[in-house]
Amino acid sequence: MTNNASLNSWLTVPSPAKLNLMLHITGRREDGYHELQTIFQFVNYGDELSFQLRKDNKLTLTPEIKGVNFADNLIIKAALALQNHPKATHKICGADIQLKKILPMGGGLGGGSSNAATTLLTLNLLWELHLSLDELAEIGLALGADVPVFIKGQACWAEGVGEKITPLPDLAENWFVIACPNAHSNTKEIFSHKGLTRNSEILNMRHALEGQAANTVRNDCESVAIELNPEIGKTLNLLNKFGSAKMTGTGACVFLSVASENKATQVVSKLPAELNAFIAKGTNLSSAHKVLFSSV
User: Could you say which of 47, 77, 146, 246 is catalytic?
Assistant: First the structure.
């Protein structure tokens, strides 16, 4: 880690967004969770978290997020999970945390999961707990199915409920136009919807990657999300004028892969001014990892 944190200094770490380049639902388990297959890739765009050590075990988070209680925030849940780890016993594990929130909530970009992962990764270093990435991922899984992906910090092929991860270091790092319609997509509502496809053919990783490159894979949550939030469909139609767009995760954000940053700029310039759209580049290594684990 290049930054040396003290009680009087702040360490700022990115909390990047992710895209699901494909998302197939292959089954439903007896516990209600869904079996899935997906390709995760990070983008160079997201939130920022800043951390400062305290002399006590107190945790603070600013600013408050409207509609989210302090105790329900995944950042605080992650910090508390670390405080309760046996390796934190007899240590002073407190922190002031500041969040610069950029990613929309309910957008399918993994903002909450990314925040939790960045918190676990950073406080593990600042509190000198020396937990491995696997140990942190185990803690993270209890917070959300996507959190281990952000902990491991590599683009990947994921199966199961998202916890079976195979790194994909050579995935093409394309440019994307990402558009966020004025809609909030509820993951629980989508996964409980009777119209959700739950029997997609199980692919092996090679065939999925070939399908992703040939654009023959899809997001099984898309049709249900559009039914529940027609604005998602309208935004997809806008992006489909310039290529083949997909929804990420359970939405509501949609993305379009483009050949270059210049092409992305051109597409954004032709979208309605009131649509929240931005340009980002795919990256196979999380920006949080680049900051925390770069060589001194």
Answer: 146
pLDDT in tens, 193-205: 999 999 999 999 9
The secondary element (H helix, E strand) that includes residue 126 is helix 111-126
Q: What is the dihedral of CA 119, 125, 130, 135, to 10 degrees?
A: 20
* Per-residue pLDDT tens digits for 32-52: 889 999 999 999 999 999 999
Tokens of 126: 């600042």
The domains found in the chain, sorted by start residue, are: 1-296 (3.30.230.10)
Beta bridge partners of 257: 176
Catalytically annotated residue among 18, 77, 152, 246 = 18
β-pair partners for 14: 48
3-state secondary structure of 237: helix
Distance (Å, whole) CA 226 – CA 232: 5
Active site residue 146: yes
Q: What is the CA radius of gyration of the chain?
A: 19
